Amino acid sequence: MNERPQYMPAEERRAATVQAVVDLAAEQNPAEITTTDIADRMGLTQGALFRHFPTKGAILEATMSWVSERLLTSVDKAAAGASSPTAALEAMFMAHVDFVAKHPGVPRMLFGELQRPDETLAKRLVQTLIRQYEQRLRRLMEAGKAQDELDAELNVDAAAVLFIGTIQGLVMQSLLAGKVRQIRRDAPAVFSIYRRGIGAAE
Questions:
Q1: Could you say which of 4, 20, 51, 94 would form a disulfide bridge with 43 (CB–CB 3.0 to 4.6 Å)?
Q2: Using CA atoms, how far apart are residues 156 and 149, in angstroms rounded to an integer?
Q3: Model-level pTM?
Q4: CA nearest 57: which of 92, 31, 91?
Q5: How do the pLDDT tens digits run along the chain, 202 residues long?
Q6: Alpha-carbon span 30 to 89, nearest angstrom
């Protein structure tokens, strides 16, 4: 059990709860995380936890909102500093990989939510995240085509799906190997292959 102050501002307590969930998801199956686990990690009683979140579902929703905001902010910041559309795509790829390496519990939660048979707000938040991410990719790819950096015939919808799928493949392999942080090592070479596949013909 972590020792934490018993009295914290509400927003700070909510943020600490989200961080506890993210940390726990890096250590165990997210589907098996209980409110008791979360409260114990924070050094709280379940009653204190439920003063800030009425249900476990509300905790998951707050966590998915946090993930969406942080990931999109990270890739947006990376793309904004790039000198060209293709450089922005690479920067987004590496920023996403870095985010996963820092928060290995996040992909476990995302995969878990998407596999749920029922429709939950947390699942819809993940689906919205993917749509917003793909929109950013398509805009950059269209710009890359306009600037003759990418293949003029490139199907940007398929290329956006493949971009995310490539990262997911890297993540899955690293999770299976139990070495999530090695994703940083593998990512540059993997992106290089992806980049050649969507590039303009010589």
A1: 4
A2: 13
A3: 0.87
A4: 31
A5: 444 445 566 788 889 999 999 999 988 888 889 999 999 999 888 888 888 899 988 998 999 899 999 999 999 999 998 999 999 999 999 999 999 999 988 888 888 887 777 888 888 888 899 999 999 999 999 999 999 999 999 999 999 999 999 999 998 888 777 777 789 999 999 999 999 999 976 5
A6: 30
14: its two tokens:
């909510």
Give the separation between CA 151 and CA 173, rounded to whole angstroms: 29
State how far Cα 87 lies from the chain centre.
Answer: 20
Q: How far is the C-alpha of 74 from the C-alpha of 82, rounded, in Å?
A: 13
Tokens representing residue 154 in the block: 């490139």
Cα separation, 56 vs 50, in Å, equals 9
Q: Any idea of the CA torsion for 18, 23, 27, 33, to the nearest 10 degrees?
A: -20
